[in-house]
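Problem: given the chain below (158 residues), write out its structure.
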Amino acid sequence: MFVIGDRVVYPMHGAGIIETIEKIKLLGEIMDYYVMKIEYKDMKVKIPVKKAEDLNLRCLSTLEAIEKAFIEASAKEFENYPNWNTRYRVNIEKIKDGRVENLTEVISMLHALDCEKGLSTGEKQLLNNSKEILASEIKMIENNEFKEALEIVNKFIG
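Solution.
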């Protein structure tokens, strides 16, 4: 369980801070919700405390772990999918998993494909969103500006 002030990552959204825990009545049931501020998007999200684990809410990683994940991802043979649509769905599931290793793998693979033959519009958007999610985490780890964190992501990509 997280507490107010914890810095966490919410897959598909990015890193933020648990600002408060609210009790909300929904369909006659009172449940606790984390209220998380995702600074880089200037957005607040409410996450049911009971579902936080299922939604893969996690603590921040370290810059060293992120760099190591990129090194491992760049050495990996990427699966050849029959079409971009299948690859897109697989990548969405990897991002939802919440693990840094999967996020860096998606970024590395999409970047390599973009350099090699280009990406569909949906995959370009997915690549940009993935970079932003990771940059939001790096921003919180390093306490720097979002633009600087995005530059770190691009440096790790190579």
